[in-house]
Amino acid sequence: MVTSIADPPIRRLDETDVAACVALAEKHGWPPEPGKWSLLMRVGEVYGIGDDELIGTVALVRYGDGFAVVSMMVVSPEHTRRGHGRRLMAHVLRAARRCTLALYATAAGRPLYLDLGFRTIGWSSSYLGVLDQGSGQTRVAAATDLAAIAAADRAAFGGDRLPLLRRWASEGRWLRVAERADRIAGFAGAWRSREAQTLIGPVVADDLATATSLITDLAADAGGQVRLDVDRAVPGLEAWALAQGMIPSGPAFPLMTVDGEPLPGDRGRVFAPIGSALG
Prior knowledge:
The chain has helices at 18-26, 34-43, 84-95, 110-115, 146-157, 162-170, 208-222, 237-243, and strands spanning 10-12, 45-49, 56-62, 67-75, 100-104, 118-129, 139-140, 174-180, 183-194, 197-205, 226-231, 247-248, 253-258, 270-272. It is an alpha+beta fold. The two termini are 28 Å apart.
């Protein structure tokens, strides 16, 4: 793509830009999530167009050398149809050209992603509810569990999330493990993505029963309303969420990769992502 002299440059954003990112996202009706933007800037790369006025953003989070997730691709309504979204996506495609690249697409962004060669490989649905009855079958993770958690995660997720998990643990977010025969059979985390709502994820487990035990115990830890992003390809979890009285929240989002490339890892053990922004 040839950049016009009039095109404002793309720059790397930092935490001084969080308020501008939140304001831009709110123009599209997205909820204010300063914590999510701040986390993305610490564990990934957030790019933007504009200095005095932020008119577009995109985030790239790398998980090792072979896998990355794109998110938060948003352009101000006053500046749409000028090629800014395409420029931002071209920027991250160049930056992650050797990676399997995945994203969850909004309805507004999907035509652009299709034009850039992304194809749908799955779907994710969000559920909200209060789960106040823990299973009592899992325990709070200790610092000494982190290496085993990271190893289990690499095998299932197919990328290296250790830097994110290490930061997760150090910042006091909820993290639990399930054990079986002296080994970790699953782990899950939870974090406050917005005020008065806790997002449960990631959830990685050997089976559905282990996954749901982790989910209910984390929900009891957090208290109040929780959100669970469900991968529809994983058998049983969507039906379980409905049986617990959780309600669907918003439309389902397609999971897309370039050329429909399969995701790495043993995805049958990944019951929920950290969230659509982080994979």
